[in-house]
Amino acid sequence: AQTVTQSQPEMSVQEAETVTLSCTYDTSESDYYLFWYKQPPSRQMILVIRQEAYKQQNATENRFSVNFQKAAKSFSLKISDSQLGDAAMYFCAYTKYGGSQGNLIFGKGTKLSVKP
Amino acid sequence: DAGVTQSPTHLIKTRGQQVTLRCSPKSGHDTVSWYQQALGQGPQFIFQYYEEEERQRGNFPDRFSGHQFPNYSSELNVNALLLGDSALYLCASSRTAGNTIYFGEGSWLTVV
């Protein structure tokens, strides 16, 4: 069975600094998608970034980028120039490629605090 | 373009009662998934609906059932509520051929 592990329950970063959140996963599939979702206190899950496993290039979205290491089954999120609005729970998620998309497997989350 | 909408946003039920939660997917999306998120945990997959049929199911008892309508909207029903069913219930929609999954704001269920 696929699993997603986030080993950092809480992280803290100074405003304008850079922080990296860790995620590892286990799967026997070769094609899959990985996601980072942000969940602020409003509780709505907001997609931060997506990575297709068949793409070697790491995904980037403005201040957010990932380090995808397929062989190591590692998928970390780097937030550059951290802002107060980045404070939230961050969840790493996996879904296998194909018709079952939407069946996301989530990690337990990392709570990110941003200090002014 | 409306995103994923859920109703109600909050509700309180008594143990043993039944509840129905509703979800309208994002425009153009045909697949709806439901998740349960207990406090302090990541969401857990309940089931997924496509073409009005349950396509996949997570590790949830039969007390949890659902339905998808021809307009792709969906309902989640939970019977014989237990205190442990208290959680945030999230609806997510996607396109079958797509790879981006959008979430609604969730329905907070408290069972007393």
Overall description:
The complex is a heterodimer of chains A (116) and B (112). With 116 residues, chain A is mainly β. Chain A has no helices and 12 strands. In chain A, strands 2, 5, 6, 10, 11 and 12 form a 6-stranded mixed β-sheet that branches. Chain A has a 4-stranded antiparallel β-sheet with strand order 3-9-8-7, with no helix packed on it. The mean pLDDT of chain A is 93. With 112 residues, chain B is mainly beta. Chain B has strands spanning 5-7, 10-13, 19-24, 31-37, 44-50, 53-57, 64-68, 74-78, 87-94, 102-103, 107-111. The A-B interface holds A 4, 33, 35, 37, 42-47, 50, 52, 91, 93, 95, 97, 99-109 and B 31-33, 35, 37, 41-45, 48, 50, 55-56, 58, 88, 90, 92-94, 96, 98-106, 108.
Defining key terms:
heterodimer; A: 116 residues; mainly beta; six-stranded mixed sheet; four-stranded antiparallel sheet; 12 strands; 0% helix; 52% strand; globular; B: 112 residues; seven-stranded mixed sheet
Summarize the structure.
The complex is a heterodimer of chains A (116) and B (112). Chain A is mainly beta.
The major β-sheet of chain B equals: 7 strands, mixed
Can you give the helix content of chain B as a percent range? under 10%
Query: What is the β-strand count of chain B?
Result: 11
- Give the SSE string of chain B: EEEEEEEEEEE
Mean pLDDT of chain B equals 93
What is the CA–CA distance across the termini of chain B? Answer: 37 Å
Strand content of chain B: over 45%
Structural class of chain B: mainly beta
Quaternary structure type: heterodimer
Helix share, percent of chain A: under 10%
General shape of chain A: globular
Number of helices of chain A: 0
Strand count, sense and barrel status of the largest sheet of chain A are: 6 strands, mixed
**Radius of gyration of chain B from the CA trace?**
13 Å
Strand content of chain A: over 45%
Write the layout of secondary structure elements.
The complex is a heterodimer of chains A (116) and B (112).
Chain A: E1 3-5, E2 10-14, E3 19-21, E4 24-26, E5 32-39, E6 46-52, E7 60-61, E8 64-69, E9 74-79, E10 88-96, E11 105-106, E12 110-115
Parallel strand pairs in A: 2-12
Antiparallel strand pairs in A: 1-4, 3-9, 5-6, 5-10, 7-8, 8-9, 10-11, 10-12
Chain B: E1 5-7, E2 10-13, E3 19-24, E4 31-37, E5 44-50, E6 53-57, E7 64-68, E8 74-78, E9 87-94, E10 102-103, E11 107-111
